[in-house]
Amino acid sequence: MNPKNLVLAFSPLVLFTAGGYLLGPPLVGWAALASAVLALLILIAGLRNGVKLITAASVVTFGGLAAVALLGGPTGRWFVDVFGSAVAALLIGLMMLVSVGTVPFTEQYARAVVPREHWGSPEFKAINTKISLAWAGVVTGIGLSRLAYGLLVAASGDQVGTLLRLGLSWAVPCVLVVAGLRYTQRLAGDDHDAEQRRGSSPEAVRPPEPRR
């Protein structure tokens, strides 16, 4: 599985977090709307390979946040500005976790590059379960970090130090994402090596015995 596909799936969350941070409360609703539109475009572009769970969840989540901010007045804008990223990340992380009990969401991306005959193999299922659990943890961790930041803002009247703001809003999420990407690459590399070993085993290359 190509980790770039996961990065693309999470791009609406990144756009909303960056847009909300740069634009501030007055325009946070438009940042949410832009993220919903981006998620919708990604969803439409990938329809030939099926509807992706995370992208569909992003369309609904950011569409809902946009409605709250644009229609909810000052209170709605404040809520989305302070807690919007946390709500989005926690909801998407929950969807990822739920998918592990049915079809791990990363299978949808892996099937685009893995031959169909391997889709039902125990190795394919096991690796995608591990990767899906890992990314559910990453995104949930991002949500908890953003929630902690939001609670500090609400409690202190937005008097949160710059280092603490950057740490909870950006540093912790970046560390979690890098760890998730490295874990995904390592598992994908181990799977590739295992396939090569199976392909080069004596049983795999032994010629058929001649008929007697």
Automatic annotation (TrEMBL):
The chain crosses the membrane at residues 30-47, 54-72, 78-101, 133-156, 162-181. The keyword Transmembrane applies. It comes from Microlunatus ginsengisoli. Keywords: Membrane, Transmembrane, Transmembrane helix. Residues 190-212 are annotated as: Disordered. The keyword Membrane applies. This is DUF3159 domain-containing protein.
